[in-house]
């Protein structure tokens, strides 16, 4: 890994993929086909892109039962324990409706209402992601969403990965469809004969999924347009090089465009980590992906002071931040921008990916400066409650009318004055 002394700050090599014009045209064509042809288009695209000819889009009860036969009892217990941890964490976020009454009879408040229907996209491809099922479905359930629809591209055998199906069934998801890509996003947004439309779509996917989510936003809500994974490790001389290297590689194996960065005050550690990364790369099953990620988007920055190192971290605003210093809690107050913060040697990033409880759907590409992790809040909406008494409006109607006339809106002014003529 390239080692650099920090002089005037650093910037993360961002990989915001807007897609090509050809990709966008393809996505628009797919969306229009699904909008007009429904299930027929979904089946055609599934055969074209996934090489699977489906008679039914809906996952059958038999497929769910078969999935359980492919999962060990030990793995099933792990999935259940992870789900319990995630549910417990998110239940602490629940907001309640509220109202206040003033002496003049005014009643003000806020009504919290869960969304009616949410679509969860679970990516396929080279890996299976039951953790994505847990992280997207559970906060929606905690929020009170009644209808949750899951879509995911089928494997070559026409089925979904066993882990994905088991995770969904454990959570009680009833509607699970074997469709992926931009066509799945279009189906969730517009609806087909089989798949009823939803109000919001969440979950990561490839560039075609991302572009499709962007196109349907406004008709439905979306969570975000996620970029490749990122990790920054903030470390002092007490950190262990082999552990830092392992954590950097845990993100590098995701994607050739994933970003793995060490920020440290120790040149000795920097050099040791660089050597460890090269050593550990050789035994990784996904070493070609990880090697490309490290070469193009990996870096080690050496700061003169911990204050300078923390400022670099805040500038980077990473998706994942590990604080591997002697006293990590001492730095927590000065860290302003990170999607998730992992404190101490035993809080390796995969702990959050799978098991601890906080959501692993996090802001990328520096958006941690203004965005948060996926949470229960993503699945609710808030309505303002306003009830003025005659006394209250009589006291304030002339002020309201004056404000309306300041903006040149006479009808607004007359609307409140009409109550007293």
Automatic annotation (TrEMBL):
NAD(+) binds at residues 121, 183, 206. CDD domains: Histidinol_dh (cd06572). Its cofactor is Zn(2+). InterPro entries: Ald_DH/histidinol_DH, Histidinol_DH_CS, Histidinol_DH_monofunct, Hstdl_DH. Keywords: Amino-acid biosynthesis, Histidine biosynthesis, Metal-binding, NAD, Oxidoreductase, Zinc. Zn(2+) binds at residues 251, 254, 353, 412. Pathway: Amino-acid biosynthesis; L-histidine biosynthesis; L-histidine from 5-phospho-alpha-D-ribose 1-diphosphate: step 9/9. GO terms for molecular function: histidinol dehydrogenase activity. The active site is at residues 319-320. Its EC number is 1.1.1.23. Signal peptide: none annotated. Substrate binds at residues 229, 251, 254, 320, 353, 407, 412. It catalyses: L-histidinol + 2 NAD(+) + H2O = L-histidine + 2 NADH + 3 H(+). It comes from the Bacteria. Catalyzes the sequential NAD-dependent oxidations of L-histidinol to L-histidinaldehyde and then to L-histidine. Belongs to the histidinol dehydrogenase family. This is Histidinol dehydrogenase. It comes from Bacillus songklensis.
